[in-house]
Amino acid sequence: MTYCSDETSIEYFAIKTITYKSVVDVCVKMKKIQNFFDSKKTEHKFKQAGTGHRLNEQRQIPVATNSQPSAAPRVTPAASAQRAGEAALARLQPDRPLSASARSARAKALAEIKAEKAAAGQISQASASKTSPPEQPSFHDDQAPVSVSGIFFECPLGCSSVFPRSSVNEHLQECLLTRLLPEKPIEASAKMIHTLNKDKEKRLVGIEIMCKYIDNVCNNPTEEKYHKIRVGNKAYTEKVASLEGSHEFLQAVGFFPRMLPHQDQEENFLVMSPDAITNIERLRSSCDILRSTEPVKATLHRGVKVYQASTHATRFQLPQDFYRITSEEVKREQQHRTEEVERNSQLRTKATREAEIQKNLRRYRFALIRVRFPDGILLQGTFHATEKLSALFEFTRNMLVNDWQPFVLTDATGRKFSEENCSLAELRLAPAAVVNFSWDAAIMAEITAAQGTVQQKEFLKPELMSSIQTL
Questions:
Q1: Which of 210, 261, 362, 385 lies in disulfide reach of 425, CB 3.0 to 4.6 Å?
Q2: What domains, with CATH codes, occur in the chain?
Q3: Which of 204, 392, 386 is closest to 290 using CA atoms?
Q4: What is the pLDDT of residues 202-213, one digit of tens each?
């Protein structure tokens, strides 16, 4: 029984081994068959692709014949799709010449990207901590709206004219000649000399020579040689006649042109009238007026504008008049703004900070300031870069409905501007900046306690809000 049992077991295991081996053999054969068919499929695909070629070999693309089925006609894309495709190609190939439509599409795409970045910047500003650096406007951005068309001035002599910076001297000269000279000839001509001649050293030399002419007459009223000035004299020609307003001043004092003999010929002279010689006190007074007169300075026109709330508040496009530097230096200044953010977060010595302030004073002429109110409304004005912070406070106060109520101005980090004797350039507000307006918290608390609630619908005067614009 045991033998039979062992024999049966051996036979069982033998059959089982043979069966397992057969299954393995079948699987191997099936795998080979599968590999065979895969290789055939791959070979068929390569044959369809055509013959191979080297990478450095010039390959000729076969031309389709009439026997081949014709491709389906290509549908012409829409105009918007064409502009989008050209803009994409422009971004991939910036050096490729672009068509007019491609340039337009590219500019539009760039403008949208910048607008999205500006909007994202506004959101990040609102959530920034007080230790974050102040917002930095992007100057001379071609896609930015024009912030101000130029620098304009107002006449200080009462004619209420507004004129561009390039014609300041011309307007002041005309106004002095037509308005002030007929009424007060000595004062008007003295103002012309100090206002229209920018070379201070040359101006002072000419003034002293004219005063010397007058002093000679006062000290020697009976000496005729001191009563006349030869126009052809070198000192007079180069140092007096070359000054704007000198002829008008000498005529106002009493010198009039006459032809007199000189070295066997007649020449032009300025001769003082007998009536003027007798009034010594008036002559001495004219010298005092000439020496002490201050130049007439045109008043900067603020160019007040009010804008709706906008994501472009910190974007500025400024004319060259705002800078004392060239346009190339302005572009480099735009790059330095990014580096400046990093510098502001680092510790610097007092000497380094003062050196940068002096550099800014030499770099900028004017500052364009936008005051942003809690409702987002923007008040814009133009200032001299050397004007004090107090001028900005006065400007803002004059535009308020409640001009009696104390307020504070802060930067993007919440830092208060309190150094009213510091210039705008020293406070890093030139050539352009945005400051935030808010009522003084202590005063508002007192008003709230007294009235219960405070409703502030509008901050600016109605006449300003009636001319509000979109930035």
A1: 385
A2: 156-297 (1.20.58.2190), 302-344+351-465 (3.10.20.90)
A3: 204
A4: 999 999 999 999
